[in-house]
Amino acid sequence: MSGQTSTLISNIGELMTQDAEHRVLKDAAVVIEGERIAWIGPASEAPSADGHVDAEGRAVLPGWVDSHSHLIFAGDRTAEFEARMAGQSYSAGGIAVTTGATRAASDEELTRLAAGRVAEAVSQGTTYLESKTGYGLDLENEARSARIAAATVDEVTYLGAHLVPAGADAEEYTDLVCGPMLDAVRPYVKWADVFCERGAFTEEQSRRVLTACRDAGLGLRVHGNQLGEGPGVQLAVEFGAASVDHVNYLSAADIGALAGTWIGWDASTGTGTRGTVATCLPACDLSTRQPLAPGRALIDAGVQIALAANCNPGTSYTSSIAFCVTTAVLQMHLSVHEAVRAATYGGALALGRESGNDVDGERAVGSIAVGHRADLHMLKALSATHLAYRPGIPLTFAVWRAGVRAV
Ligand SMILES: N=CN[C@@H](CCC(=O)O)C(=O)O
Ligand SMILES: [Zn+2]
C-alpha cells in the first residue's frame, strides 16, 4: 500500500471499463488509492480499504473526456441561434460577436465564466477537458485566453486561426498567428488548431499555420469539413494531426485517408502507431442543422472516433456529453459501448492521454484500469444503456476526478 487514503466502491452492477480488453464487468468493485485506480475486479474478491461506497447496483463508467471545447469567452449569441432556428444558415462570421464581448471582459470575468462552464461539465460526469483559445484574435487577447485556459482546464489548444478579425488583412493576420502570436501563447498551450473552412482560413493559410505550430513543437488538430467538403481532413492526415474535428461532409477518399492513418494501430490492444482521430460533435451538428457526422461509416472503415461537446456560444452551447452519447446511439447508429468509448477512450486518444505512466508521469485517462487516473462516473441507472434508453434524463449520480469525489 502507498499510504494514501483508499476507497472501495463495491456492488457495481455494471463496470464499463473501456480498457484494452473492452471489458464490461458485472457485480464488480473498484478501489481508488490517492489519484489512481488501485484495483478492479469481482465485488466478492475486493480488498478492504479506508473508506467504502456502496454503488447499490448502479453502473460505473470512465469520466467523460471532452476533447473539444471553446470555454474562454464572454457574451451571448441567443439572437443568432434564434435566427438560425428561423432558417438562417450558420457562418463563421458569428465568431466576431463573441470576440468583441471577450475582448471587453476583464481577466476575472473570463476566469469566472470559464470556471463555471468547467463546473457545469464536471457536474454531468466530465472529468478531463480541453479548451481552445480563439475568441481573442489579437496577440494580447489570445495570450490572455491561453493563460486563463491553462489555469482552468486540463489541455489547451491555440486557435488564433479561428477567424480573420474584422478589418485585418487575411495574409497579414496569418503571419501574426504563425509568428508573434504563436510565441506569446506558446508557454500555455500544448496543441494548435486551425478552422479550415470557407469564411475562415484557406487551405494555403491553414497549411502555413499548421507548419509554424508543428515547428514550434505543438501537437496539431484541424476544424475540418464542417460546412461542406473541403481540404481539412486531407490536411490533418498530411500533417499527422492528432484529430480532425467536425467531419460532417466526408468523401470516400476522406474516410479512406483517415482509415489509412490507423493501419499501424492495434485497436484490440490500443498499441502501435496512433493515427488521426475523427472527432464527431453531434450537439453542434443539431444546433447548426448540419448532417450528423458519419460516425458509423468511420468506425466501420477502421477510424478511431471521439465524441465531444464543442461547448461554445455559437454552434453548440452545451457541455453535456451524455446528450452527445444519446444522439450518437439514437441517430448516428453507434452501439452504446461504441458511443461511450468514443466519449471516454476516444477523447483521450485525441488528446494523447489514452496511455500513461503509473510511476512518475501523467496517468492515462478515459478508461478504467489499474494505474490509470481515478476518473469515474457513476450513473443513476443499472447500465450504460440507460444513457440512450432514457434520453434527456440527468443520470449522473457521482463523479470522482483524479480520485477526488466531485459530485
Ligand atoms: N467551427 C468553428 N468554431 C466553433 C464555432 C465558433 C463560433 O461560432 O463561435 C465550432 O467548433 O463550431
Ligand atoms: Zn470547435
Automatic annotation (TrEMBL):
Catalysed reactions, as listed in the record: 4-imidazolone-5-propanoate + H2O = N-formimidoyl-L-glutamate
Cytoplasm listed as a keyword: yes
A cellular component term, taken from the record's GO annotations: cytoplasm
Q: Which GO terms describe its molecular function?
A: imidazolonepropionase activity; iron ion binding; zinc ion binding
Name the chain's protein.
Imidazolonepropionase
Q: What is the lineage of its organism?
A: Bacteria, Bacillati, Actinomycetota, Actinomycetes, Micrococcales
Record-annotated residues binding 4-imidazolone-5-propanoate?
Answer: 77, 135, 162, 226, 315
A Gene Ontology annotation in the biological process aspect, one of them, is: L-histidine catabolic process to glutamate and formamide
Gene that encodes it? hutI
| Taxonomic source organism | Arthrobacter bambusae
Q: Does the keyword Thylakoid apply?
A: no
